[in-house]
Specification:
heterotetramer, A alpha/beta (313), B mainly alpha (310), C mainly alpha (316), D alpha+beta (631), C: 316 residues, mainly alpha, MetI-like fold, 0% strand, globular, D: 631 residues, Dipeptide-binding Protein, domain 1, Dipeptide-binding Protein, domain 3, 3 domains
């Protein structure tokens, strides 16, 4: 299972605010393998959501390329390919209160995608598909005739997932799917997502602002800072051997569920000025197998040595 | 003091069975938007009373001409039958040609209500569609805003006066004249509303699902505007009736042999000094319709605000 | 900021030009027969009628006429009336009439603003109380009964009751009262009802609840928070309202025989006096656009949240 | 033909008698409804313009209280025997006055009259009243005018405009010397004086005109005054104030020194203002008369003020003989049907809408108004045989007769089964006025066209009810078409009507003023009928210059015209009720031109004139009038 389902190369996304141009994402490259969960972690405003939306074609990419199953899906593409993308790539949104159409019944919300692409033979099949999707996310089929505001946050998020599932997607982009939920039901949703991944062989691009959540669901983790990926590695590897100072700062902010250890945990602050990029701009380098870090030559040498040292001890 | 649960008698508590399906139900509160709106609305006796007024006037206006064979334009050649004050046989009296004001009033109510309804439907319909497109389709914003600026700056009298000259005075001319300016405000209003919900997450979600524009507007945008639009429509009706009165005043209203409230008011005003009742009936009805629609519209809009649903 | 203003003004100019050109073209849809009465047709033969129309300049190609109008405009010449007040310079007609409408308009704006905003505050403050009820009743009545009727009654009854003249005389100040009141009444209701609405909306906001809960006296909450924020919404309409008082009111001016601008546009359109119509449309469009622009400026001035450059995309 | 002011002393004595004991005022407060277009007194489309022209300018002649033509700026006049050349001798030393009431350096001379007409005759000045009839009347004028028109339109290029203007020398309006002006006419015109009271023949000072250029008449100081008053104050759409001209040639007759006219559009307001003492006069509609019944004002309301212009106007119903409605066309060309119509319309009842009190008093059965023209023996044209009987018939409304004639018409026009002979079902396209379907069967469908205003609409509805009552709904079905502003251009001229009502002013003092325009293809033959017999009579009459002979044939023609019902005369100009402080019969009266608007000689009292007083004054006046006319 090493085939690449999605690849992003040198992605750049600009926003125009009034007359000013604002670059939200720049030089981002990564590959997403079928069946894995890649988490995109960064603080708010770092551009992680923008990457997700660029893949969903909600924001146009200014340069670079995005390929889904090897085909370009950015810029102007044939309608057929877009149709394929819309079916096979689904998104789960951050705020379950905001992401459901309040004036539509659950039935419509869940079957919206089916309707858009005519993915059913007849009414009965559509209803059956909706029911199945609801059951799959642990909701009662009767809920189909209800309105979103009749549900709790966790239920609504599961409706959002059902809406995605009904399309039988291959790739799910989950944009901070749990950050707006009560802590008590976060696990519920995470478990659901894990189960679905298992059952349906889904691929996730999981967007989060918090490393602690993603550790347990991700195969790989990418850290993004100010629109640029700074580090990407296997999840465990990243936690073990964070190379980029920003990653280290993020990691130090993860609370440890042991008061004694937490007390001695030193929080590291990250100062972008610590880099000396004036003379030599950084590049996206693979410092060890599968471990990419944004760095210039000097840093690369320094950090891989550091990794070495650490690895040795 | 320390709780010692172990000391509690066995059997006092039973472990509750856990039913996942039942647990789902707890998160769910039965609530229907429209039912709540309706309940909030009818809780106020004034609004119900005024709604009743509208219903009664509509009924009189639309049923009277069907069930009565009194011709509102029947002229009495007997001059003694002219300008009769209210009396049996002529509950509202007669006008300067012996025409029965009771019949004229209800025929007039029908004409004016019909005018108001058609204008309201057209204004709101056009305003809604244009406004939704204008707000939702980013590329349209620029040209539409420019169009709005232009239309908004063409003085309304120019249109109101020009059209009857170009098209002849008539029922549909008035409708065109009033609609030609009426929809703009509503479109602007809808556009602003749409912009405020355009980028809401549920719309992004729908876009991710590949929902086409027409369904975005009809399912995602317009349902959010329904209550506001109903209120706009409710206010457009009395506004149209008032405009018809005004147009009649400057001589560009409906043809005067058409029985309408505007024509009745203007004819009544001419004779006001002598026969005040000829002005009083149509004015009272215009006022009652206006007040009713105005208050009912407002109450409805209040009632449709979920924050007011208890 | 400077460049933003320039850009806005540029856009406004385009708007004004389109407005004027479209009304100009619309006017040409009216039949030329409108320039002749029954009597004229009996008196004049075809040659005389054509000659007459040619002298009015209405037989030319509309684009030539438009160019002519634009050319005159460049030189500050608005042309002369052709049918309403034949040969009188349009500029002098407007200069004679506009001051009346402006004076009454401004006086009534002062009255209706001060009283209307006062009433609005009172209504919001005692929401669902007596003042609110009376205010709503007033506004409803003013809106419900065709203005034609109550304006007529005010003229008839109050002037009779007080022994005031029924029409306006320039040299008898007592005759100014009723028209000013008539002008103010509707506006008063407008200000009251909107201020009330905005204030009530503001009152439900969290920051107001917070201010109240931290023990701020109600009057201070009203004045310092609610009124201020509610006014921000209202204030953007003021410049346009003030500028467009120049349009006067057909109804009130004809009732009180005020020689203002009120009926000018309607009569000019009816008599197809194109130079007058064009000038008025131009004037109103310029003032209208300017009013919106000043409204935005004013709003940016009173509302620190708004930066001018961001206004362009936002709705009012 | 020379007239002299008659019995001025007698008049003054009578006025003194009538006003004995009553306090007179030197101020008149009146109203006007529509603002005048300008003070360019040659162009007077509105009544206000005519009032301004009449009071601020004098012509060569004017009409006096008895509507005789009397000298004004011309002291005397004469004409050649065949009435084609008229010479007027001006008063000497009369000066133009400015808007401050001061004498200017300009004297009123013969040149001013020539200059005035030159202004009128130039198509560039857009004087609409310069009718084609007048163009054809004045020698050389028509060609001069048409040349200028052709030059302006680019049709004529062989001559410059200036040269064409210089050709005015050839037109028959000339100053023989400083104080003599002559008019040369194309046809003998014994009634030429009645043209001269029109605004077209007023003078203008040449140098002043050149000085103000296009601004002539746009403000009170942009014209000079030759009349009894000058404009001392003016606010557009508000008021016009006249002050007596101290240098007026007839200044001693001016009793009222200030005339203040205010624009008031609402008749109710006018009445209220009168009651509050703010006005000297208020015209009342029937409703207001009723409203004042029982008040102290009731005793002062009387109708038919003699100075009003009602007499010279006739209202009549026009029937379209060339209608595109085949049913109507078949019927209206049938004399019996026309007679049925004229008997079937209750004209008195129709007038009750305007005047519920004395609706019959203004009914008119003829085309030419009475009391306007007299032959050389002082006999009123309307008393000529043939016409007199028609006048005496009064309201000849008669339902039985109407039905009788209708039965005859139906027998001739239908097959007895309700089918109209020779008429197929058709769509009548009179867009934009109306459009309807006719089936070629009874009931006959007719289109009555009216203005979209309250009174006219009421009238239409009443007429419909009346005809359907007289003829039966099974025989006639009246449909309506509405027009907003210009009935003629929208409806009459393109013949988009079956029936319509209209009114015409009697333009100059000869029956031909109306009868001559009613011939086949005549200027006001809007029904497009053609009657060679009538045409021949009119033609014959026009060739006679002895008035009694002329009138005799005209009377014959008119009687024939009326008998064949080409139009249905209805009534004279509106029946206005007045409440006034103006002593009646003190100001000039005249059916022609603008003299009737003159305030000259008017006497205003402190209190309203009562009906009783009016009746006394009227009796005295009629006696005087009879004396004057037989003299």
């Amino acid at each position: 299972m090493s085939d690449t389902i999605l690849s992003v190369k040198d992605l750049k996304v600009d926003f125009r605010v009034g007359r000013r141009l604002f670059t939200a994402v720049q030089g981002v490259s990564f590959e997403l393998l079928r069946g894995e969960t890649l988490s995109l972690v960064g603080e708010s405003g770092s551009g992680k959501t923008t990457i997700g939306r660029a893949i969903m074609r909600l924001h146009p990419a200014s340069s670079g390329e995005i390929r889904y199953e090897g085909e370009r899906v950015d810029g102007r593409i044939p309608a057929e390919r877009e149709r394929h993308l819309r079916q096979k790539v689904q998104m789960i949104f951050q705020d379950p209160m905001a992401s459901l159409n309040e004036r539509a019944k659950i039935d419509y919300i869940v079957s919206e995608g089916l309707l858009n692409f005519g993915l059913f033979k007849d009414e009965a099949e559509r209803r059956q598909k909706v029911e199945r999707a609801l059951l799959e996310v642990g909701l009662l089929p009767e809920f189909a005739s209800r309105f979103p505001h009749e549900f709790s946050g966790g239920q609504r998020q599961r409706i959002g997932i059902a809406r995605a599932l009904v399309m039988e997607p291959e790739l799910l982009i989950a944009d901070e799917p749990i950050s707006a939920l009560d802590v008590s039901i976060r696990a519920q949703v995470i478990n659901l997502m894990n189960r679905l991944k298992r059952d349906r062989k889904l691929t996730y691009l999981f967007i989060a602002h918090d490393l602690s959540v993603v550790r347990f669901i991700s195969d790989r983790i990418a850290v993004i800072h100010r629109g640029r990926l700074v580090e990407l590695a296997q999840a465990e590897r990243l936690f073990e051997r964070p190379l980029h100072p920003y990653t280290r700062a993020l990691l130090s902010a993860v609370p440890v569920p042991d008061p004694d250890m937490e007390r001695v945990n030193r929080h590291v602050a990250y100062d972008p000025l610590m880099h000396d990029y004036g003379t030599e701009p950084p590049l996206w380098r693979e410092l060890e197998v599968g471990h990419f870090v944004l760095s210039n030559m000097r840093e690369a040498a320094e950090w891989s040595a550091l990794g070495q040292v650490r690895g040795q001890t | 003091m320390k709780n010692d649960y172990a000391q509690l008698p066995v059997g006092l508590f039973r472990p509750a069975p856990f039913d996942e399906a039942a647990a789902e139900l707890t998160g769910y509160a039965p609530y229907s938007y429209w039912r709540s709106t309706f309940r909030t609305f009818i809780r106020n006796p004034i609004s119900v009373g005024l709604l009743l007024v509208i219903v009664v006037f509509c009924a009189m206006g639309f049923l009277y001409p069907v069930f009565s064979n009194v011709d509102p334009n029947r002229v009495d050649l007997e001059t003694s039958q002219w300008n009769l004050s209210p009396q049996s046989g002529h509950p509202f009296g007669t006008d300067g040609l012996g025409r029965d004001l009771w019949a004229r009033t209800w025929h007039g109510t029908r004409t004016s209500m019909l005018l108001g309804f058609i204008i309201a439907v057209l204004d709101v319909g056009i305003g809604m569609v244009v406004g939704a497109l204008w707000g939702y389709v980013r590329r349209l914003d620029r040209p539409m805003t420019e169009l709005y600026n232009v239309l908004n700056n063409v003085p309304q009298p120019v249109i109101l006066v020009l059209l009857p000259y170009i098209l002849r005075p008539g029922f549909w001319t008035i409708i065109i004249a009033l609609c030609s300016t009426g929809w703009i405000g509503i479109a602007r209003f809808v556009r602003n509303k749409v912009i405020s919900i355009r980028d809401a997450e549920y719309n992004v979600a729908s876009r991710c699902l590949g929902t086409p524009l027409h369904r975005m507007i009809s399912r995602n945008v317009l349902p959010y505007l329904v209550s506001v639009l109903i209120m706009e429509a409710a206010l457009t009706i009395p506004y149209s009736i008032g405009s018809e009165v005004y147009l009649g005043f400057i001589g560009l209203g409906l043809p005067l042999d058409t029985v309408s409230l505007g024509n009745l008011v203007n004819l009544g005003k001419n004779n006001f000094m002598l026969y005040p009742y000829q002005l009083a009936w149509p004015t009272a009805i215009v006022a009652a319709i206006t007040i009713s629609f105005y208050i009912v519209g407002n109450r409805f809009s209040d009632a449709s605000d979920p924050r007011n649903h208890v | 900021m400077g460049s933003y203003i320039l850009k806005r003004l540029g856009q406004s100019l385009v708007t004004v030009v389109i407005v004027v050109v479209s009304v100009f073209m619309l006017l040409r849809l009216m039949p030329n027969s409108g320039y002749f009465t029954r009597e004229d047709y009996v008196n004049m033969d075809q040659a005389a009628r054509t000659a007459y129309l040619r002298n009015l300049g209405v037989l030319d190609n509309p684009f030539v006429q438009l160019a002519h109008f634009a050319g005159g405009l460049m030189k500050g010449d608005l042309g002369r009336s052709i049918s309403l007040y034949p040969r009188s310079p349009v500029s002098s007609i407007i200069a004679e009439k506009a001051p009346y409408s402006l004076c009454f308009g401004l006086a009534s704006i002062i009255i209706s603003m001060s009283l209307g905003l006062g009433l609005g505050v009172l209504m919001a403050r005692h929401k669902d109380g007596f003042a609110d009820w009376m205010g709503t009743l007033y506004v409803t009545v003013v809106r419900a009964i065709p203005s034609l009727i109550w304006l007529f009654f005010i003229q008839l009854w109050i002037s009779g009751l007080m022994g005031w003249p029924m029409i306006f005389y320039l040299d008898r100040p007592v005759s100014w009262i009723l028209p000013t009141i008539s002008f103010s009444l509707a506006g008063l209701g407008w200000y009251a009802i909107w201020l009330r609405r905005f204030m009530v909306d503001e009152e439900n906001r969290d920051y107001v609840k917070f201010a109240t809960s931290k023990g701020l006296p109600r009057t201070r909450v009203m004045r310092g928070h609610i009124l201020r924020n509610a006014m921000v919404v209202l204030v953007q309409y003021f410049p346009q309202q003030i500028l467009l008082t120049i349009a006067g009111s057909l109804l009130i001016e004809s009732l009180y025989n005020i020689p203002g601008m009120g009926g000018l546009l309607v009569s000019a359109v009816r008599q197809q006096d194109n130079p007058i119509v064009q000038t008025i449309v131009l004037l109103y469009a310029v003032l209208g656009v300017l009013g919106v622009f000043l409204g935005d400026l004013l709003m940016a001035f009173v509302d620190p949240r708004i930066k001018l450059a961001d206004c362009s995309g936002k709705g009012a | 033909m020379k007239k002299r002011i008659a019995g001025i002393s007698l008049v003054l004595a009578l006025i003194a008698l009538g006003t004995a004991g009553a306090a007179t005022l030197d101020r008149f407060d009146g109203t006007y409804i529509a603002e005048g277009s300008s003070f360019r007194y040659f162009y007077t489309p509105t009544t206000t313009d005519q009032k301004v022209a009449a009071n601020t300018q004098d012509g060569l002649v004017e009409q006096d209280r008895y509507s005789r033509f009397v000298p004004s700026l011309a002291e005397s006049w004469s004409s050649n025997p065949d009435f084609t050349e008229w010479t007027f001798n001006l008063r000497k030393g009369i000066m133009w006055v400015d808007s401050k009431g001061a004498k200017t350096a300009y004297e009123i001379t013969a040149d001013d009259f020539v200059e005035g007409f030159r202004h009128v005759a130039d198509p560039k000045n857009g004087i609409k009243n310069l009718s084609k009839d007048i163009r054809k009347l004045i020698f050389g004028l028509n060609n001069y005018y048409l040349d200028l028109v052709d030059i302006d339109s680019g049709k004529k290029k062989d001559i410059t405009r200036d040269k064409a203007l210089a050709a005015f020398e050839g037109v028959g309006v000339k100053a023989l010397d400083k104080y003599t002006v002559t008019y040369k006419l194309n046809v003998p015109t014994p009634f030429f004086l009645s043209f001269l009271v029109m605004e077209l023949f007023l003078p203008v000072e040449k140098d002043f005109l050149a000085q103000v250029g296009p601004d002539f008449g746009v403000g009170k100081d942009k014209l000079l005054y030759s009349g009894a008053y000058y404009i001392s104050d003016w606010q557009r759409d508000k008021q016009i104030v006249f002050k007596a001209n101290p240098f007026y040639w007839d200044a001693k007759t001016i009793k009222v020194k200030t005339i203040n006219l205010q624009k008031v559009t609402d008749p109710n307001v006018t009445v209220q203002m009168f009651q509050r003492g703010e006005l000297s006069q208020a015209d009342l509609a029937a409703d207001q008369v009723k409203a004042l019944a029982g008040t102290k004002w009731a005793a002062s309301i009387y109708s038919d003020p003699p100075a009003a212009d009602r007499f010279s106007v006739t209202y009549w119903f026009v029937q379209n003989f060339s209608s595109s409605n085949p049913e109507w066309k078949a019927f209206i060309n049938n004399l019996n049907f026309r007679k049925a119509l004229s008997y079937g319309i209750d004209r008195v009842k129709l007038n009750e809408l305007d005047d519920p009190y004395k609706p019959a008093s203004v009914i008119r059965n003829t085309v030419i108004p009475e009391g306007q023209i007299y032959d050389e023996k002082g006999r009123d044209y309307s008393d000529y045989p043939g016409i007199k009987e028609i006048r005496a018939a009064g309201n000849y409304y008669n339902k039985a007769k109407a039905r009788e004639y209708l039965a005859k018409a139906l027998a001739e026009l239908t097959d007895g089964k309700g089918n109209i002979k020779g008429v197929q079902a058709a769509k009548v396209d009179m867009k934009p006025v109306a459009e309807f379907q006719v089936d070629g069967k009874l009931p006959l469908q007719m289109l009555y066209v009216h203005f979209n205003d309250p009174t006219d609409t009421k009238r239409a509805l009443l007429l419909k009810a009346m005809l359907e009552d007289a003829f039966g709904k099974e025989n006639i079905d009246v449909q309506f078409g509405q027009v907003i502003d210009d009935m003629f251009a929208e409806s009459v001229e393109p013949r988009r009507f079956d029936m319509i009502y209209d009114n015409f002013r009697f333009g100059f003092a000869d029956p031909s003023a109306q009868l001559g325009r009613l011939i086949t293809d005549g200027g006001i033959n809007d029904g497009q009928y053609s009657d060679p017999e009538y045409d021949k009579l009119v033609d014959e009459a026009a060739k006679k210059y002895i008035l009694s002979e002329r009138y005799k044939i005209f009377a014959k023609a008119e009687a024939l015209f009326l008998d064949r019902c080409y139009v249905i005369p209805w009534k004279m100009g509106g029946s206005v009720y007045t409440i006034t402080k103006v002593v009646p019969f003190t100001s000039p009266k005249g059916g022609f031109g603008i003299t009737r608007f003159k305030y000259k000689g008017m006497v205003v009292e402190k209190d309203p004139i009562t009906v009783k007083r009016y009746e006394q004054l009227k009796a005295a006046f009629l006696k005087e009038l009879a004396a004057v006319n037989t003299k």
